[in-house]
Amino acid sequence: MKYPIEGSCQCGQVTYQLHKAPKKVLACHCTECQKLATGPFSVTAIVSARDIEFQGELKEWSRVAESGNKNSAKFCPTCGNRIYHYNPNDADTIKLKLKPVNMEDDNIFAPTEHVWIEDKLSWYKTS
């Protein structure tokens, strides 16, 4: 894989460059991620904040997760795409929501782990 790899929101107003591979990639089956993805799960790449650069205007929305942790989300104010999540108590970790657009190998964003499977939809089978 050649770095940086790049991505953007749907309208292109927010862009990013990822300089290193994600630490891991999660398929989250919690009900909040099902809402976010409008599907059975949401894919999240866990990356170090120092390994990614963002350009463009971002808005923020926060909520308290079931775990009790504060979960903040950055999104594009034009198209509404979620860009990333983060825990304000762990600013070094970015939970990237957008798939890069210039990947030679899309396996870099294949989930390495399924989480919150107790909330998964009954018809979705995990391996």
TrEMBL record:
Presence of keyword Lipoprotein: no
SUPFAM superfamilies: Mss4-like
Domain named CENP-V/GFA: residues: 5-125
Family matches, as InterPro entries: CENP-V/GFA, Mss4-like_sf
Keywords linked to the UniProt accession: Lyase, Metal-binding, Zinc
Similarity remark: Belongs to the Gfa family.
Name of this protein: GFA family protein
